[in-house]
Prior knowledge:
Blueprint: E1 4-7, E2 9-12, H1 36-53, E3 62-65, E4 68-70, H2 75-86, E5 102-103, H3 108-118, E6 125-127, E7 144-146, H4 151-164, E8 169-175, H5 178-190, E9 197-204, H6 209-222, E10 227-231, H7 234-246, E11 253-256, H8 264-267, H9 273-276, E12 280-284, H10 292-297, H11 308-318, E13 323-325, E14 328-329, H12 347-350, H13 357-377, H14 400-408, E15 411-413, E16 419-421, E17 430-438, E18 444-453, E19 456-459, E20 486-490, E21 499-503, E22 508-509, E23 519-520, E24 525-527, E25 534-536, E26 538-540, H15 547-572, H16 577-580, H17 584-600, H18 610-642, H19 649-655, H20 658-682, E27 687-690, E28 697-702, H21 707-730, H22 740-764, H23 768-799, H24 806-810
Amino acid sequence: MVSSVLNICHLLFFSLLLISFTCSHSWKLSVVRFQERTYRWFQAIVFTVEEINQHPSLLPGVKLGYHIMDSCSRYPHSLTAAMSMISGGNKTCGPTKPAKLLIGDSSSTQSILLSTTLVPLKIPMISYLAGCPCLSDRQKYPNFFRTIPSDFYQARTMVQIAKRFGWTWIGAVIADSDNGHGTLQALEEEIKGTGICLAFYHTLYRERLQKDVAFAARTVQASSARVILVLAWYTDVEAFLLELMRRNVTDRLFLASEIWSTSYNIMANPQLYTISKGTLGVALRSAPIPGFSAHLQQLHPSRYPEDKFLRTLWENTFGCSPTISSSKIIQNSLPPCSGRESLEGHIEFIDTSHLTVSYNIYLAVYAAAHALHSLLECNSQNHTDSKIKPKCSSPDNITPAQLLQHVKDVQYTTQLGEEFYFLEGGIPPVYDLVNWQIAPDGSLQYAFIGHVDGNQLSINDSAITWPGDSGKVPISVCTSECPPGTRKAIKKGLPVCCFDCLPCTEGEISNSTGSIKCYRCPKEFWSNSYKNECVARETEFLSVKETMGITLMSVAVSGAVMTTTVAVIFLYHRNTPIVKANNSELSFLLLLSLKLCFLCALVFVGQPSLWSCRIQQAAFGISFVLCISCILVKTFVVLIAFHSTRPESSALIKWFGLGKQRGIVLVFTCVQVVICAIWLCVSPPLPYQNFGMHRSKVILECTIGSVVGFTCVLGYIGFLATVCFLLAFFARKLPDNFNEAKYITFSMLIFCAVWVAFVPAYVSSPGKYSVVVEVFAILASSFGLLFCIFVPKCYIILLKPENNTKKFLMGKE
């Protein structure tokens, strides 16, 4: 097989803080520092190409070459270097052969520029660190591939972490670059509908880093957000953290992006131990590269005398100047090295057990090699799209378009046994989750606490060390979640995470934390005092167990007892003139009706039921009509008796005898009985649960049923009482020592006054108090009749028996 050299040239990104050796520029840097991390990336290229060239079955007979150039983090240098390599202007990959594939750039901004420029030429490029979500657009960047997941997935992972620990108010400090803004945009999309809000965001631009760092630190210090998401280059992050330390802001938790979540440079700075402890980071999936550690250990300036980076590494590590030959010493202030120095003791540099970016570079070079191998082998089985007929090529006639198609379809098994392929130009999202912790020796180290595979987030909460000394999960909210019994009310002009907690109104509850609305209780229930639970409404009625009910019942029973006592007195003195006067039979009937009036008040006390509601009004109406009828007939008898001296009155006296008197009482009473019967048959009173009177109570009451029926009952009683009052009023001045008409007038006056006052009081009284008003009216009017009509007679019977004579009563003594 003919051996040839294929140009695969590599663009490697170096930070502005590097000592650059392949480019010159006019920018003045405030800090110049060699970065061991990026030099290890450099060596990953060298090691991988050498490993592929020694592979027995991958690209047999083909040797890969490489040319590493420093982009200086400036797009002019990236573009210049790329144009130089694809035009064959370099001097290391062959005299005239242009590069057919580029690996780089690490910066998203430079990658966007290069991909856009190289699209017409169909030259593929594979980046190992450009994570901008915008680069997933296959229409704009069809020639761009990467061995790092899109930062869209990193943003989603950070949102998942924030949701897991209840952080709804977070700040963001991002790099002022396409990658930073693209990731921020992805983050803002992911937090929609999650209840998470950005308290603020600030950018860090390297050209004005000192100013931006100071401004961002002031914002963090003033903000109530306790969780800060930081998406920036690790050297910029270090400057930002140092500024926070200077301001003594040490109680924040940082969510670190993959670019600095495993940065030894920051962890090696003792000044940052306090502020960095507890940092949670999303790290690129780490993996070892077999044999890479041995490759790093064998590095020595004597073997690679032209490697200026290695010479700088040696000076920084051992504090001496390496000698290129026995006769030449580098001229500087450092003493010469002995030659026995070795990187074997430089653990941080040679530790390859958890490689991230270096492993991505390793995958990128192998992806390029496998795509080239597929192109040269020309095997149709290597294509996922069966409609595309593979185009064979020889090593001397490779076109970028052919190689681009094979890069799209590349698929191989890594040395770790994993399948590698490009998903929308990138790779499936797989991350490690790390936590920065203080090691037993006092140093700051990161520990693995979980991982992300696709959409699956797995975290070992118990393995996390939190900032501060409390050991508790930080709370980062604009407003604490509303407790049960309240609801959220968004503050006008502020994000949805900032809200007021308003208590639920009466009858509504919220039984969960952070409820956005209150829910009305069912009809039979009401909210408790905490507004977090619906409880059965308290039933209210005039109970026999409460003070009001006991008092009314006692008064009613007392009235019935007093009425009975008067009846006994009258029965005992039934043959005396004062008892026999004006039809003693009517007096006993009147006492019976008064007793019924007192007793009917008892029916109103207690829980309303079907039978009690119907008996109440009927018993009340019939008892009072019987009572008023008796009084009315007695008033007629008085008038007729004192007009009996007229000749025409004798016939009337004979006609209005005892039988007629009983009949009139019966007729008047039967009218009320008929009214009540019709009322109870057509629309009777029924027990009713009133939910609208008192919000927290259900009022058990009797409905009137028919307003017309209730009005007729009261109206008929009022009519009889009015007629009785008028007749008694006309007979009040009759010439008797004991004029019963005068006392009837007073009793009717009290009766009418009570029931006239009853109507407005009954209508305006809420709940059980309407029942109290009616019972009070019954008792007051009954006592008024009892006292005004019978107490004067009992006074004469018991205290003035000498006046209990017919002559005295007729006014002849």
